[in-house]
Amino acid sequence: LGHGKFRGFMADGDSMPPFINGTCVVGEYVESLKDLKPGKEYIFVTAEGTTFKTYVKSKKNSLTVAADNSFYDPYDIQLSDILQVWTYTIGILPKDYKPYLPDYAHLKDMIGDLKKTVQDLEGKISKFPS
């Protein structure tokens, strides 16, 4: 990791893909909020707890952050609630981690079925007078 002040945080919840529960997310201490860069990931330690988010922008009294899970909308963290900020450095996955691999054979069958359905619909539509 080199020189600096580093700390590990345990991932918890579904807002930080690709990290799963039990992942150790390591961050380097940020001395000043002026050092934050839009589009970079940070660990924010706030009065409410710890959260891993992508920094979006600064406002007068808050920071806008976004989760890596698109299900969640960006939101603001009040500057007065921020205790510490850590730049994401590395994630250490749990020993028993197995990545989710989609069932490509099933996906291929689904696409084939959709293609056939579209072709059937096109055939029926072409029989209608213009």
Q: Trace the largest sheet across and list its strands.
A: 1-2-7-3-4-5-6
User: Which structural class matches the secondary elements?
Assistant: alpha+beta
Number of helices: 1
| Low-confidence blocks of residues | none
Overall number of strands: 7
**Distance from first to last alpha carbon:** 68 Å
Shape: elongated
Give the averaged pLDDT, no decimals. 87
**C-alpha Rg, in Å?**
22 Å
Helix content: 10-25%
The helix-strand sequence is: EEEEEEEH
How would a textbook summarize the main sheet? 7 strands, antiparallel
Strand content: 35-45%
Give an overview of the whole structure.
- This protein has one helix and seven strands.
- By secondary structure, it is α+β, with helices and mostly antiparallel strands.
- It starts with 5 loop residues before the first strand and ends with a helix.
- The model has no long low-confidence stretch (mean pLDDT 87).
Based on the model shown, name its key terms.
single chain; 130 residues; alpha+beta
Report a brief summary of the structure.
The protein has one helix spanning 104-126, and strands at residues 6-10, 24-29, 41-46, 49-58, 62-66, 75-78, 82-92.
Set down the secondary structure blueprint.
Blueprint: E1 6-10, E2 24-29, E3 41-46, E4 49-58, E5 62-66, E6 75-78, E7 82-92, H1 104-126
